[in-house]
Amino acid sequence: MSVLTVDQVAVGYANAVIIDGLSVEIPAGKITTIIGPNGCGKSTLLKAVARILKTQSGTVFLDGRAIQQLSTKEVAKKMAILPQSAEAPPGLTIFELVSYGRFPHQRGFGTLKQEDLKHIHWAIEVTGLSELKDRPVEALSGGQRQRVWIAMALAQDTDILVLDEPTTYLDLAHQLDILLLLKKLNEEEGKTIVMVLHDLNHASRFSHYMIAMKDGEVVTEGKPEKVMTHTNLQAVFDINAFLAECPFSQHPICLSYQLNKETDCLSSFSGYSNAR
Amino acid sequence: MSASVKESVEMKKVYKGSRPIMATFIMIGGMIGLLFAIGLSISFGAADIELATVWSSVFHFQPELTSHQIIQEIRLPRVLGAALVGACFAVAGSIMQGMTRNPLADSGLLGLNAGAAFMLAICFAFFPGLPYMYIILFSFLGAAVGAGLVYGVGSVAKGGLTPMRLVLAGAAVSALLAALSEGIAIHFRIGQDLAFWYAGGVSGTKWEHLQIMTPWIVVAIAGAIVLSKSITLLSLGDEVAIGLGQRTGVIKFFGALIVLVLAGAAVSVVGAVGFVGLIVPHLTRFLVGNDYRWIVPCSAILGSLLVVLADFAARMVNPPYETPIGALIALLGVPFFLYLARKGGKEL
Q1: Which member of B23, B59, B264, B312 lies 3.0 to 4.6 Å from B41 by CB, making a disulfide possible if both were Cys?
Q2: Which of the following CATH numbers is that of domain B85-343: 3.30.160.270, 1.10.3470.10, 3.30.70.100, 3.40.50.300?
Q3: Domain boundaries in chain B?
């Protein structure tokens, strides 16, 4: 089981430090979700973990070894990444795209061996794409396309799966579809899953562990019950949340919410309608 | 789920995967076609020579025969030059398109050709009589200068390097470099020497050019084939490639180096001929799919074929005058560019 640890990491872009000295541990074999408002640095943290962004200081440890010291192919055998806006070049079939997941296990010119084919077929099957495997990726719907990328990450045969907003742009049913797939992979294959989600209720319902961020810092982390509280949501999102219990997961969910300043807005609004 | 599956199946019935069989067919068929085109190109010209004579001049060279002399000294190097140049531009284009995920990438459109041609003008002006061995090095450098300027100009603007913006920057930089080259040509009175470089023609190719450029090109194309698998991965996007354990920085560095050598070598012989690197990789991708392990070698062969045929046509259109092959290829290239720019409107 691979373990991910973020130790005193500073990371950012050309001349803006987004995260400065953040430490967090990703529990092995669990689903961990990072939440937080836009621009809080959650995707940046994920990219640092995934070595897409180089850390300016501090270290990300994979199994106790600094990730920058490991060869990138070695990391790719332990951790697969699904970036936010992955887009396949036109004409590529599902089977082809998924087969690129075998790259870290291949040598030389990269002909597919029996072992590779086994993983590719399994990944395509577990994501429910068997019937479509010879279709071009661009002909698929958004939800199917996301499944193809997940299948590629699965073909990589890693312990850890890192996903940046895997449900963005999908409708309600397809969002759930993806999350249930991830849940299944966690439960049946024991995959460690780290992801960024925008939907708090999905995050709470499907996570074992949540990390709430604001302004590049971790505000609170822990089980959903610990993170999804009125006070925390106020601190992280500046909202006045009305919480309830999810009937499916028994985790807290946000039934509805107001902005902290909204009470004023509402009263002026009702004043307006009264005048009519 | 099943409804949307059916929908998407009906949306596109065409199977468009990578096609190794088609690729093999193109490589073998293309090679035969290329040999035939080369033979044809050698036999037709100001003095028509029979194919049998072409054959015997190559394999049983008799220096006392004029036809053998013409073939050996003028037509053979010329047609081989055309073949090499075509392969260079096409492979450079395919690598650029794959690495940058930019469907409009071409050494002509992105300023490499103009940069190399500019450096040649400088060579002629300041170092007259410089051996070709060194001229070709300047040409590589020029391609790098052109590419650097285009990327520099393109990335200054807000919003990053979109394909369209790069093409605009390429057009601006190319225009500037061409104007500067011309200024140098007029000031130093070297217009005569440079004329065929602007027009684009392989008529000046000599054996000594071939001897010097061939090793560079062979190494660069071999390198491109070695990199081809990695280039396919890069064509999925940087982040995906990193996630799959690709050392993207290293691949991009060597890829860029190969592109500069190929474009520079080609321009040093034929001048700033554009669009070969645009048309051929797209055509190849359409035929063999998205795997650069097939795209690179097939592009090389189809690119050779295109330029050999273009050179042949250039001599046939209006004999005994030669039409610049740059103009002939632009005749194909411009509509193709407009088509891509239009089609790509959404994705770009």
Answers
A1: B312
A2: 1.10.3470.10
A3: 34-63, 85-343
